[in-house]
Write a structure and sequence with these properties.
262 residues, binds 6-acetyluridine 5'-phosphate, EC 4.1.1.23
């Protein structure tokens, strides 16, 4: 039987995974498949950004270690905004070490990521034992963590995430369907509609940043490459009118997603 990729049809399947259940409900109620990458270095800049764009996002992606004035008040403010305006907090930490180190990096240090992030990114390069460590962290009650995304494919020129790599990454994810919500990929890397496919490398105007990043249009990312959620950073955060640009990306992203039949 042909797989039906419409969100309506996938909702039940996606809801088996706690992270995807949370995300799909937000996506459908706010009608957005936009995740904004808030790669800003001051907490006030991030809060100001969120105040402008909250209606248009399903997830806010952070790199907590680039922030120069980190504080717990900042985390509390973000959590309040996330609760009120319905989006998930996504720490793009790209864990890639042995399980024990990953556990410490999730739970300890300055940022105590597992206490506030609903989701994180994990590289598959260290093998699937790291993912089983992740499961233990998620199962701990004192955590905000609902699941993770595995990095199947990077957007940069010359990335080594090619050949067998995305396929083997998918094999790991299949072992932990309750904790792995999906993938960071360039092209949909698996034919299973119970995962979500998140893609960075999206910019409607520019094709590269001169430092290895490769951008393509929303149409390419969603319609041709068949990803579900677009991750957009500088195209929105550096725009003159951030709010209008977030709305433009969200509208174009959503219409590409819902008009896709496969
Ligand atoms: O739109 P940009 O290029 O300003 O930002 C893209 C964001 C950045 C990267 O750290 C991240 O997406 N990213 C990732 C993620 C999400 O894991 C993987 C990747 O292959 N490429 C990429 O740009 O915050």
């Amino acid at each position: 039987r042909a797989i039906c990729w419409s969100l309506e049809n996938r909702k039940l399947l996606l809801s088996k995974n706690p992270l995807n259940k949370h995300i799909i409900e937000i996506m459908m109620s706010k009608q957005t498949n936009l995740c904004v990458a808030a790669d800003l270095t001051k907490t006030s800049e991030i809060i100001e950004l969120v105040q402008k764009i909250h209606s248009f996002i399903c997830a806010l992606k952070l790199h907590i270690d680039i922030i120069e004035d980190f504080s717990w008040d900042f985390i509390t403010s973000l959590q309040t905004l996330a609760q009120e305006h319905k989006f998930v907090l996504f720490e793009d930490r790209k864990f890639a070490d042995i399980g024990k180190t990953m556990e410490l990096q999730l739970n300890k240090g300055i940022y105590k990521i597992s206490s506030w992030a609903n989701m994180v990114t994990v590289h598959s390069v260290a093998g699937d034992a790291t993912i089983s460590t992740f499961r233990e962290v998620v199962e701990n009650q004192n955590t905000a963590m609902e699941g993770c995304l595995l990095i199947a494919e990077l957007s940069t020129e010359g990335a080594l995430t090619r050949d067998f790599y995305p396929k083997e990454t998918v094999e790991f994810a299949k072992k932990y369907p309750n904790f792995v919500g999906g993938f960071i990929c360039q092209k949909r890397c698996h034919d299973d509609p119970s995962f979500l496919y998140w893609t960075p490398g999206v910019n409607q105007e520019q094709r590269g940043d001169g430092a290895g990043q490769q951008w393509r249009s929303i149409q390419q990312a969603v319609t041709q490459d068949k990803n579900d959620i677009i991750i957009v950073g500088r195209a929105i955060t550096s725009a003159q009118d951030v709010k209008a640009e977030a709305e433009r990306y969200a509208t174009a992203g959503w219409s590409s997603l819902i008009s896709r039949s496969d």
